[in-house]
Amino acid sequence: MGAAGPPLGTFMGIPGFEIILSIFHKLGFDPNLLCNSPMSFGMLLTVGSSIFTALGYMLGYFGSVTSFISANLVSSATVHSSDVTYLYLVRWLAANKVSTDCRLFWVTSRRNLQSSTARRLSVFGDQGNQHNDESDVDGAEGEDDSLGPKLKFSPAPGISWFWYNGKPIVIRRSCDPNWSQFVGDLPDQTMVLTTIGRSPKFLRDLLARARREYLEAERHKTTVYCLAPQIYGPSRVVWDQGRAKPSRDISTVFMPSEEKSRIINDCREYLSPGTAHWYARRGLPYRRGYLFYGPPGTGKTSLSMALAGELNLPLFILSLSTGSINDESLTQLFVGLPKKCIVLLEDIDCAGATDSSAKSNETSWGKKQKKDNKQPQPPNNDNFPRHGKTPVSFSGLLNAIDGVASHEGRILIMTTNHRERLDAALIRPGRVDMEIKLGFADAETITEVFRGLYQELETEKEGAEKVSCKARRFAELVPAGVFTPAEIQGFLLSYKGQPQKALEKVASWVEGKNRKKSGRNKLKLRRNGRNNPPPNIMPPSPPSTATPDSAMSPTSSLQLPEPTTTTAITADA
Ligand SMILES: Nc1ncnc2c1ncn2[C@@H]1O[C@H](COP(=O)(O)OP(=O)(O)OP(=O)(O)O)[C@@H](O)[C@H]1O
User: Which residue among 397, 418, 437 closes a domain?
Assistant: First the structure.
């Protein structure tokens, strides 16, 4: 008997040793016997290393076979989630039930508020059915949508495959390895499609089809992009693709028709193929800017949305009053715009874009804040510009709009409720090429709002003539130049499908509104009087000192500040 070999436990720490032991067990050997003599121990080592060598050869061989196949016998396409092609593909997979039939799948729900990527990807479940925006093509069967968001499926990270036109297609989906699942968002992803055959035509055709189907589904929709905080990497704001909404028909925006066609024609002319060359030949930057101004609820945002739908352009919405952007992020956002799009820059009277008088206020106030070492907060003064935490400076705004880095080809729409506060430099020709004033509803707009709300009754029980007649009567009862279209719409929405009832109730509604408005005006006057007491003379009665009696009359038009009755365009055409 030779000397016994070392006990088995000595080798337990060696990687792979346990596998060798389990193989021995499977083959019916007792590995302890092998350790009882040095020879047996040597045998154990030899057998173990032979198994490893054989495995290594097999893997190496397999590796060379797969690299040979991938280099010579298959074609593949790689798509990254940062590109819109990824969206075409995800939608196509969903529409063709590949996502639902996958054995290994990834699941998300649409209303994951934290997750911008999940929202973006889950949009595509909706696209397969254009008639019902809320339905899903890839939701779980039998799921009750009324209970909450349906589940969305897509191929899981890893490898899955499906048949398409008689060929197997392998999908390899991989995620950004730096992704932390605790942040609530989905990681950047890459999808590689591989199929048999050297010709790339098959996959190109598939991708072209995915693109065509996506764009066809999008044709009657407007894709709206808003701001989203960047969760990964450096903290900054980025454009987040919201849901593609059914486009708003331009006919649902009520404003004088000749002015509506002027702005549409101007945009069309600007976007026509020859115009870019025309600008380039004259050395002009190829940009077009519009200013929509007027009181809140007069249709500035609605008109922008409808224009985006009419021109089939994506809409990028940015509000300067949120305070979440600064000069740097504003420039970054403008640089990140596609070549052709509409940018809606709301509330440009905020954040440093005010006229010099307001700016001088801002300076002294800012100095005071610095002295007090407090977080700047706007004073409670209606004439003072609102500021967010990271206000955009006036020069930062100008730089983003038409600085060197600013893209050409886009349409910029700026909106404000206070045109008088804007610096002349901001609205000079070249930055603003056409101004549109949206005002309180005139008689024509009031009639249109009424007809718009009850238009389906024109074909049903009421008949067109009856609805028009009621609309005219309604316009007689609502004073022109006092209410915004939003206010009138709000009232009519309480009487959906009941035009007669709306007619009966409108007089008391007008009366109540007038009473409220005159009360607010009086309060404002009193406050202004306290803030600026007149020296020795009595102040002249302002127009808004309407007597309560006159305000009570349903047809009296209140002398509100700047009651405009029409939408006016001033353009340099
Ligand atoms: N001219 C209009 N034509 C059709 N609808 C209108 C019009 N004005 C307002 N509305 C309706 O009123 C609501 C608010 O309109 P919108 O947001 O476009 O106003 P706005 O001028 O952009 O307001 P704000 O200055 O507060 O952003 C919307 O539901 C819209 O449909």
Answer: 437
Nearest Cα neighbor of 384 from 351, 427, 426 is 351
pLDDT for position 179: 59
Q: Do residue 79 and residue 205 come from a single domain?
A: yes
User: Does ligand 1 lie within 6 Å of residue 490's CB atom?
Assistant: no
Residue nearest to atom 5 of ligand 1 (CA): 253
Residue 322 or 480, more confident:
480
State pTM to two decimals: 0.64
Mutate-to-test residue for ligand 1 from 291, 302, 489, highest number of ligand atoms within 8 A of CB? 302
Atom of ligand 1 nearest to the CA of 415: 25
**Last residue of a domain, which of 52, 72, 92?**
72
The closest residue, in CA terms, to atom 28 on ligand 1 is 486
Tally of domains within the chain: 4
Cβ of 296 closer than 6 Å to ligand 1, yes or no, is yes
**Of 40-44, 152-156, 177-181, which one has max mean pLDDT?**
152-156
Question: Whole-angstrom Cα distance, residue 408 to residue 278?
Answer: 13
Is the CB of 416 within 6 Å of ligand 1? Answer: no
Arithmetic mean of pLDDT, 263-267:
94
**Average pLDDT for 11-15:** 67
Q: Which domain does 36 fall in, by range?
A: 8-72
Q: Report yes or no on 283 lying in a domain.
A: yes
Residue 35 lies in a domain: yes
- Test site for ligand 1: of 245, 251, 259, 301, most ligand atoms within 8 A of the Cβ: 301
